[in-house]
Amino acid sequence: MPLVTSTEMFKKAYDGGYAIGAFNVNNMEIVQGITEACQEQKAPVILQVSKGARAYANHTYLLKMVEAAVIECPDIPIALHLDHGNSFELCKDCIDGGFTSVMFDGSAMPYEENVKIAKQVAEYAHAHGVVVEAELGQLAGVEDDVHAEEHQYTDPAQVEDFVTRTGVDSLAIAIGTSHGAYKFKPGQKPQLRFDILEDVSRRLPGFPIVLHGSSSVPQEFVQKVNKYGGAMPDAIGIPEEMLREAAKGAVCKINIDSDIRLAITAAIREHFAEYPADFDPRQYLKPARQAVKDMVTHKLVNVLGCNGKA
Predict the structure, then answer these.
(1) What is the pLDDT of residues 133-163, one digit of tens each?
(2) Cα–Cα distance for residue pair 61/65, rounded to 1 Å
(3) Contact 237, 256 (CB under 8 A)
(4) Are the CB atoms for 49 and 25 separated by under 8 Å?
(5) N or C: which end of the chain has fewer CB within 10 A?
(6) Positive/negative CA dihedral, 109, 115, 120, 123
């Protein structure tokens, strides 16, 4: 099947009490590891490309790798999504360039400006058969060009007005997740504001909600990175049981990026330590690709609940 939008994915996920994994991609091994896992588990998937990924790997290379994955994995629906598009121009470029979904992130802007540009993006996207995600509230942390010092929880009182005026198709909200691998301080108990999620869900019945910054930062990866020469003290993520609980409700899309990076880095560091004579990139990228596949398989089955839903 060709690339699809997330519309049908989200409807089934909302009704079925599970979430679609939205995994960030930057190179061939990541695309392969994710989609091979999804093909084996018969899981729908969203492959995300950030502004930073486009700068690193080039729009065309990324698009063609994803199109290759569509051919190699014919049994699953795959959507190609722009993550954190911060301007109309960037969103338009991705819409014109073959993406089936875009996110306009105006969360750092004044409310009315966020509404204005999100509406502009939605109108252009819908005219071209593309769906749009927007964001209210702001997540702390660092991811590519997205950087915020403080967390600003989503105000549920704004969501109806925002969705009605903009016409966007899904909404990312801030309930305590955050970008990067250092989501909480040592000794701090991870918490998500499920009361905000429930309030938003009540105000927007049937409307798909998105969680950004939802990597769990598996400690086995962190320990392996540190064991083989890395320096990642105090890296802490979102507990997987909290994400599974969110997926049972209105959350239809859960973004995962840092866990992919950790899986790859841990595998490569381990390989270099055990096989110091290796210099062929295929020798260490092969186990890195497998580490991504294994990690994604775990997420599909045990966190997202979307295995078997293709």
Answers:
(1) 999 998 765 556 655 556 789 999 999 999 9
(2) 6
(3) no
(4) yes
(5) N
(6) positive
Extract the tokens encoding 25.
């991609």
Token couple for 109: 């802007």
Query: How far is 210 from 184, CA to CA, in rounded Å?
Result: 20
User: What are 9-20's pLDDT values in tens digits?
Assistant: 999 999 999 999
* SS (HEC) of 78-145: EEEEEEEECCHHHHHHHHHCCCCEEEECCCCCCHHHHHHHHHHHHHHHHHCCCEEEEEECECCEEECC
Helices (H), 248-280: 258-274
Q: Which residues pair with 132 in a beta bridge?
A: 102
Cα 84 to chain centroid, rounded:
10
> Which residue, among 139, 128, 45, 123, has the nearest Cα to 88 in the 3D structure?
123
CA gyration radius, the chain: 18
For residue 212, which phi and psi values (nearest 5 degrees)?
-90, 170
Q: How far apart are CA 193 and CA 167, in angstroms?
A: 25
List 182's β-bridge partners, or say none: 236
Q: What is the pLDDT of residues 69-89, one digit of tens each?
A: 999 999 999 999 999 999 999
Half-sphere exposure of 309 (CA within 13 A, CB side): 25
Q: How far is CA 206 from CA 12, 17, 171, in A?
A: 11, 12, 12
Query: Which residues belong to the active site?
Result: 83
H helix or E strand, kind and range, residue 69: helix 59-72
